């Protein structure tokens, strides 16, 4: 193994130090950031692999930080989860998305939005009525809203989470299992809940052409989807080769930089107006 120089060790230590200082700073800035709406939703299209049409979109959070610029979610979601503000944040994301749907509706656009919820959000007993009230208030069809659920390493109370997910299903909201293939509980969810969509994690899409095991996971997702009557979205589609292979395997939908990066609201709305949708 390559010997690391004293410098690189020093560099690394400094990096860790800087990051933990950043974590502390971010934690102390959260309240203001939420109040001042510094968190924005960026949108990335989900595309029909055959036709290239936009069939849906995923809302991905970004922090427009006054000093640090655009901060990605890996830098702040776990801080929010640990700070006790994840409930407020989850509700903010849902509200922002429903208002976005309402804005699009006023322009004659009906593209569903998928939001990412932390499993902690599903422990919030009122999250479903909160959502239902907003859908009513803005007169939005519930099927235009989709919940993307990622399993966390810490296995939270599956029963409580399932209860909320079932309640979301009952009011007509769609349900997606995110990052299929990376965790232990997706199978439990898929077999016990009415899941509408399985999203294959991009780690498997990336090298499925040369990694047989990863190709098997992609195929497993497609088989499960057939058995449980749900759709599959392949994440992280970065080139035409991947898009073609996925389509050949019978995967209908894809998402990734090949089609578009996640982009700010105004840009995405412009894209919707100039590209064919559903
Ligand atoms: P995710 O839900 O799995 O989202 C997909 C991630 O892959 C996004 O990263 C997206 O920008 C990225 N991505 C999309 N296409 C490609 C591609 O072709 N190549 C590569 N290399 N990457 C691609 P992002 O936006 O940094 O989000 C990271 C994670 O943060 C998300 O993973 C999600 O788990 C979490 N997250 C994002 N927004 C929210 C939110 O509003 N609430 C919660 N609780 N979590 C969120
Ligand atoms: Ca997601
Ligand atoms: Ca994902
Ligand atoms: Ca992920």
UniProtKB/TrEMBL annotation:
Organism name: Marinomonas ostreistagni
Entire-sequence positions represented here: 359 to 636 of 641
Coiled-coil blocks: none
Domain EAL: 23-276
Protein name per the record: Bifunctional diguanylate cyclase/phosphodiesterase
